[in-house]
Amino acid sequence: MQFKPAQIISILFHPLLVPTYLLLILSSLNTHHVLTMPLQYRLLLIVFVFLTTFMLPALILIILRKFGVVKSLEMHERQERALPLIIVSAFFYLTYYLLKQMEQNSLFTLFMIGATMLVLLCLIINYFTKVSIHATSWGGFLGAFMGFSLNFQVDVTLWLYAIILITGMVATARLILKAHTVAQVYGGFLLGSISQLLLFYYV
Predict the structure, then answer these.
(1) What is the reported pTM?
(2) Averaged pLDDT for residues 157-168
């Protein structure tokens, strides 16, 4: 009975959706980074990011599954993760590169280069052992917001509580589904949170 909710949580908070979720929250904050952007521009930006970081990578992963390159979209086997991770990192970097041309998006651009580096780190680690990409992504989400709050002195306490709650739910769901060991979940969380926290705090 526990598997169905865990599967739903894993899908709703899929790593590919993290950039879109983060941009949605950033766009709702009353900071000068956001207020300088017209609402229509923010909406177009969200649609663009959703397409480049979720829709297009997901479509390619579905095609790879159809042709038998990956057995499952969950990519349980370590050996079948390499190509999808390379594809995702390429789309993340493309998103970063395109947003870099628009100086107004400095915060989200910073997150995207951090997310690209995290995917590449997961790719390197994948040659030795598995790490939870779900936990890495949401750890990165949390680390980015903590670093943003500390560096720019912005109160995002309620959002931090919400992100911590979601991160805990996602980590628990991955354990219930037996997709990862406790070490792989904690390892992914620490990798993501520390990397993005340092990036947002010091850059």
Answers:
(1) 0.90
(2) 94
